[in-house]
What we know:
Layout: E1 8-16, E2 22-25, E3 31-35, E4 42-50, E5 54-64, H1 78-81, H2 89-105, E6 117-118, E7 129-137, E8 142-148, E9 155-158, H3 166-181, E10 189-196, E11 202-208, H4 215-221, E12 227-234, E13 246-251, E14 256-260, E15 263-267, H5 277-288, E16 297-300, H6 308-311, E17 316-320, H7 323-336, E18 342-345, E19 360-363, H8 372-381, E20 385-390, H9 393-403, E21 407-415, E22 425-432
Parallel strand pairs: 3-5, 6-21, 11-12, 16-17, 16-19, 17-18, 19-20
Antiparallel strand pairs: 1-2, 1-4, 2-3, 4-5, 7-8, 7-10, 8-9, 10-11, 12-13, 14-15, 20-22, 21-22
Helix pairs in contact: 2-9
Amino acid sequence: MTKKASPLFTVTLDRIIGGGQAIGTMESGKKCLVWGGLPGETVVIQQTKKKSSYIQGVVTEVITPSSDRITPVDPDSYLSTSPWQMMRFEAEQLYKAALIEEAFELHNIVLPHPIEVSTNHIEYGYRNKVEFSFWYDTDRQMLDLAFFRRGTHGKIAVTHTSLASPAITEVSQDVLNGLRNLKIDGRALKTLLIRSNRAGQVAWQLYVKDESLDAQALLRATRHSSVIRAEVIYSNPKSPASVITTRLASDGNGVLSDTILNVPFSYATEGFFQINLPVYEQTLSDMQEWLEPHKSIIDLYSGVGTIGLTIGGNTVTLIESNEAAVREMQQNIILLKKTGAQAILAPSEKALEHITSNATIIVDPPRAGLHADVVERLLEIAPARIIYLSCNPVTQARDIALLAEKYGIRWHRGYNFFPRTPHIEHLVTLDKK
């Protein structure tokens, strides 16, 4: 039975919304959320999802192009990894500033200064981490790297993404060639996670669904000179995520390391670490301007500690719920000889006693924003200054609206951590009224 093709619609797009899609209104009055389109364009879109009040889709044809439209660097796969490749970079900067402003306006907050989105103007090659899926082309009888298609569960074969560092692109092809030469069945594979540091060293992990796969043969077939550690990992097929069940084999004992503002950090291949280090360093420098030397620092949602251990001085308390991240943080505390620093393994909302009135509080929560108990504790204790870095201006604005009972915005700035994508970081310094 042939699968029915998704319907096509013609629509004129109005504006870009917070998730990064363009929105328009169809003749039926139903809203249409579109990837690959720009405001003012008339486009043909293919429906990928249907809801009662709106549909989602991707652009298949541009009838009337915007003056901001350019040809994507990765024309076949950009929607999967970097769906804003089709607009001028200057337009991307303006849209990101506008989305920050819109997020705060939703909560009746007028930001006190013009919105600036800081960037180092490097649009491609900045990512130090990429996770590939796999696709087996039955016509060519060839295994390929792949990404998931935007808005669907299907996959698209790729050779690379232009966002990745050159070292990642080179090593990913080496691993793929090793898999092809050994004729490993794509159904046995989950994902390939590759990371690189600024020195061009690479570590990779291949997650497989077949525990009997000859891991040692694969490692022998993929020995690239820049790789300091390679691992083949069995990951339970019942879990859609690439989680470590059993480490089958490894080659090399190297551990990736990088410096952030001249402070050295080591991190596991599967661990959390910042993707775009130069822009992150600018963010940290800006945050440091608002720290008072005589005050201790409480760093909530601290990850592996790259904020607190870089700019937080010796008397910093770092609170993180991920056990692996805390383990790396503790190792870095020892390596950095931060004798007054302490790492606390706990969700921030379960470590409220560490939030004190005489400390500067730094928060960098996940996209969901601050836990309600954290907001309540901050209002109760009322430290003089809160520095809030967010990857989601919408939840950040919500939290700041709640904190506005006692706090005002002293300073703010956006950051383009992920060029050619809709993702935005926004930093706000809050002072007690």
